Amino acid sequence: MIKKRFEVSASHQLNLPYESKCNGLHGHNWLIDICVNCNELENNMVIDFNVLKEKVFLCLDHKHLNDIIPDPTVENIAYWVAEQIGFRQEGKRYWCSKVVIQESEGNVCEFTC
Length: 113
Ligand SMILES: [Zn+2]
Hints:
It is built from 2 helices and 4 strands. It is α+β, with helices and mostly antiparallel strands. The chain has a 4-stranded antiparallel β-sheet, covered by helices on one side. Strand 3 and strand 4 form a beta hairpin. The two termini are 13 Å apart. The site of zinc ion has 4 residues, from strand 2.
């Protein structure tokens, strides 16, 4: 298993059915930890860290997340990240096993695939 951490600065806006400051446009510096497993190494690596950077970091950093992820709650962001890497399935060499996102100090979402 490898783990890659990114810090993503981005904006988002939620659409909660109750009054919340999260419904206004605002930003976070999300700390995103991505765990990737494989069933065999390629070039003696689980996955090139640069692939994770391209599939996740470059897509999200300094973006407005609502343009990329519908209803970008931290839960939906974690699912989207896992989907970008791919889930475990037959014939797949590597897959995302876990995503942990800290949205702010003490607010963390952990998604085990
Ligand atoms: Zn927020």
